[in-house]
Every structure is written in structure tokens, then in C-alpha cells.
Amino acid sequence: MLATPLQKIRTILSTIPDPEIPVISLEELGMIQHIQLVDDEVHVMVTPTYSGCPAIEQISEDIRVKLHENGYPNVKVEMTYSPAWSSKWMSPGVKNKLKEYGIAPPQHCCGNDLCMSGKCSVIACPRCDGKNTELISHFGSTACKALYTCHTCQEPFEYFKALA
Amino acid sequence: MSKQEMLSKYLIRLGDTSLMMGQRLAEWCSRGPILEEDLALTNISLDYFGQAEAFYNQAIKAGELEKSADDLAFRRNEREYTNYILAEVENGDFAQTQMKIYLISSFLEKLYATLINSSEELLTSVARKAVKEVTYHHRHSKMWLFRMAHGTLESSSRIQNGLNSLWRYTEDLFQTNEYDNFWMEEIQTNIATLKEEWLKEIKGFFQECKLSLPEDTYMITGGIQKMHTEALGHLLCEMQYLQRAYPEATW
Q1: pTM metric for this prediction
Q2: Model ipTM?
Q3: Per the count of CB atoms within 10 A, which of A124, A164, B81, B160 is most buried?
Q4: What is the pLDDT of residues A29-44, one digit of tens each?
């Protein structure tokens, strides 16, 4: 079955990795919200993970370049705030990729969407699976990650924060 | 004033407040007491800048303004900003900064949680995003205040001093004008309820930390009426330097 024009574009975009976490694509993160073809202009609506995500400029540029390279010279990338990005959009496969990369994937545990108390759901170390971990800071190297330390293997690691 | 105009001006107020929070916290860049906090404070700052841009963009749509978010952020004078005063005041030391983040993020968390019940998509789209982020700011600062309150005499007295310095700006958070009517009428709530809930929460927490609320404080208000403290002038001097020195500058 032949792909529709929009499907073709989405397939092209699905190859663009997140600039911060290159093992995951923007598509897998759920950042590419909406694609429209208006005459010969491609409109891509992107939803940022965090309001102040500094990678947004890079992501917009990556989208434009990728589409230009594939024969779409007229591209408009716009940010949308609605629906608000949720870490629940990450599939188990994507979460696994994160873990393999060394980042503990988001956990949506007790129903308190932003629970990071560690009381209801332990954040396990992505390297050694140790459960004796401790939150160091709610903010890590990027706004979307928190900093933890593992008391089993003594290594620090980052946790992709749940943002439900 | 039409509803759209009120909505636009209200969004600008939220944008202005976020902008000032972003700017003040950015001052901590390279000055954090430990590396993790340098990152945390600047990440929080980034969240606020992102929210400011989002609020401004929606304000522009609501009011059909012929301006950009950059114009709203960088090309206004001090008597044009409508932020809550608490956001513009100096950081003080680390303890005072955490107190400031705590006071404002606990307030914004409640405010945004209320605003998401509005039918105005331009407002709720940002509020829904912002509420999740300020919740983390609230949690982070609360952890620090608790830690410092139960630490040493030095750390607990710095927290108390921080509270003493900032308490006078908290009444300003609950000032309203005609721009608030559109959401208060629609959501059938009022600012007094918000204030009561907020006070209950922070008083409870301050009790846990053995902090005393200053009494008989002369409250400084007027932010939403564009009456600001001297601190805003200094903030704008630094923030707007580039735009004023090079008015045609573009990225």
C-alpha cells in the first residue's frame, strides 16, 4: 500500500533523534504533534517537553533541514502548548532504550502524577538495577531529568522525570 | 474592555511574573553554592523563561497585538510591567532565594490548578504545562527549606531572615483588578479562597520548620498596577542592555 504524503513526511521525521538523547527520536518522544500539508508548505507542530526546553531551536532546525534534504523546500515549524507533553506518551520500548542509554525511565506510580518520593515506586539504577537509590536533586543536566545516586554501585545517574 | 483584551492583559501579567522569576534566577548561573544547585536554579529559571514566552505568545494571539514575545519581554519600560512584585526583588542569599521560589511556586501551583478549569484555550494550554513545572519548583525549594530549617543555627537563621525579608511582598500576590474578573466569574471562585488555601499550606509548613511569620508587616503592593520597587529598575538595566544598546539586533 502506498504511503500518503503525510505518512511519507512522518516517516522522514521519525528518523530525527532528540538532540540531547540521541537514542530516541522526536517521534518516539511524542514531540511531533501534528503535520499538515498546505499547498506545498509543510507545517509541523512540535510540542516541547518542558516550557523552557533550550533544544527547541535545534529541534526546529533539524526538522527543517531533514525535510529540505528530502525535497520539501517550504517548511514551517511551530510550537504548540496543547496537548501538554506527557511522559506517559513514552512506550515501554522507548523506556527500555532510555535505560540502556543510562537514563532511568519515567515512572508513573501511585496516581500522584509527579511522585518522586521513592516511597511508592523505587527508581532503580539503570546500570546495576540496584534499588537503594537516593534523589540528589530534582534538576539534573537538563530540565527534564533529575539527579540520583546509586548506593549499590556508587554511581550517579539521571532519571527522566515523570511529567504526567 | 472586551473579554479578549482582559485575557490578553492577564496573560501578560503571568508572562511578566514568569519573566522576572527567570531573570532573577539566571543571576545564580556560575554562583551556585554547589554544582547541583547551580544547575537546579538555572533549570528553574529556564522553565520560567519558557513559560514567559508561552504566556506572551498567547497574549499576542488573544489581543491581536502587533508585537512579538521579545518585544513584550525586552522593549518595555518599568511602568509597563504588571508582574507580582515578589518576582522582581533581589535574590539575596541562597536561603532567601529558596524561600522566594517556595513562596511563589506554591502560589502559582494553586493559581494554575484553578486556571486550568477555564474554557479559554489560550490560557489553559499554558497553565496546564506550567502547573506541572512549578510543582517541581515547589517541591525542590520545600526540600531545601526543610533541610536548612533543621540544619544548623546558621542555616535556620538564614531561612528566617529570608522569610522576614520577603513576607512584605506576599500580599501583592492576591491583588486583583478587572482582568481577573473573566476567570473568577467563569470558574466561580475568587482570590480570597486561593489566599486562604495558600496561607493554610505555608503556615503548616513553616510550623514544621519552626519558622515564625513576621507580624505587623507593612505590605508592599501595586505590581499589577505597574507600581514597582527599585529592584525592577536594576533588573531591567541588565536584562534590556543589549536591546537598548543595539535596537536593530537580531539572532
Answers
A1: 0.90
A2: 0.80
A3: B81
A4: 999 989 999 888 999 9
